[in-house]
Amino acid sequence: MKNLICTLALIGLLGCKHDAQSNLILISNIPATKTIEGTDLKIPPILLKPVSFEVVDSFLIVAQNRSDSIFSIFRLPECEYMLSFGMRGRGPDEFMTSFPNTSLSSINAGDGRFAVDNMMNNVQYYSIKDLIKKNYTPYKIEKLPTDLNGFQGIKYLVDTTMIIAPYRGNMHLAKYSTLTNTLSLFKEYSKTFSFEDTERLRGVYGCYIDLRPNNKQFVITYSNCGIIEIFRIDDNLPLTISYEGFPSLEDNLGLKQDSKTYILDKNQMIFSWAIKATNKYIYALVFNTLYDNISDGKGLRRTYTPEIHVFNWSGKFIANLKLNKYFKYFDISMDDKYLYAIDNDIENLIRRYNLTDILP
Q1: From CA 21, how far away is CA 4, in angstroms rounded?
Q2: Each residue of 190-206: pLDDT tens digit?
Q3: CATH code of the domain in which 330 resides
Q4: Which helix (H) or strand (E) holds 294?
Q5: Number of domains in the chain
Q6: Is 2 helix (H, G, I), strand (E, B) or coil?
Q7: For residue 286, what are the domain limits?
Q8: Which of 74, 112, 55 is CA-nearest to residue 334?
Q9: What is the pTM of this model?
Q10: Do the beta carbons of residue 222 and residue 248 sit within 8 Å?
Q11: pLDDT per residue as tens digits for the range 4-49
């Protein structure tokens, strides 16, 4: 990769280098960190075990790992509590298992709709307007092919198409049409390694996805590889943002071409564990440090707070943000005015950060 980069005709771009022919932007200098102060928003005693966090138009949905009230909905920007719903179980309108950390996502239709998976391969569509009226039945249920066996990531283009990173199988990214009930390959896994179990590929190429609200582009970041990829929905050739100096997968994970497996090591570099998108900006949660600095092997170290790197959709580095307090989950208001964050060890508290004077 380094040899390839050296041959490119590079031009300067705010701490980056961009080669138009290869669609590669090389991040060689990271802008100075801007630490921002937040406001604590007290909420009713309902948040106990948050596992996911999603802005849906003018609402915020918090998903929790509990047997009742799996989802709680708040009205933005004050995080006014609206309602909770979702019981664990196998009955009507119940959830067999709680995996909303990967599949809870907005429909991006501008009217308060979202979807989440249930029973591994059922995707259930909801309207917040219906939920406010105490109608907890999804307005649509889509049954996906069983060989997907869950998702490491899934995003919904209104209610007609899905971009899916399957939990298993040989597809890195897939498209699913709810109109024709067809699953098609969007991006296949690299054939660099000889893993017999495709689930190992999920670990190596572990990724996080978000969709631009205009439903025309999406963005991916990776756990073990220092790149961010920006795709058009109809094109599998990405604009790639690459961080100079981040080790290759082979070096980072100690892999060879004939490797059959790999073991997570405390000296492995972690690049990113989340990404969020608005129509204007991309917000990547960047660690760019050793796993040992982040985790003690049992959980995250609360002494380490990652950065949030902000890009526009052309790949220009806009800002490097750092929140003044530890957080586990974050999301951005649709107008880029506020960042919301949750510390999963502090119950009944959501922090709000004002971005108005931070971003152009």
Answers
A1: 13
A2: 888 777 777 778 888 89
A3: 2.120.10
A4: helix 291-294
A5: 1
A6: helix
A7: 2-47+150-254+261-354
A8: 55
A9: 0.91
A10: no
A11: 333 322 223 333 344 444 699 999 999 999 999 999 998 988 888 8
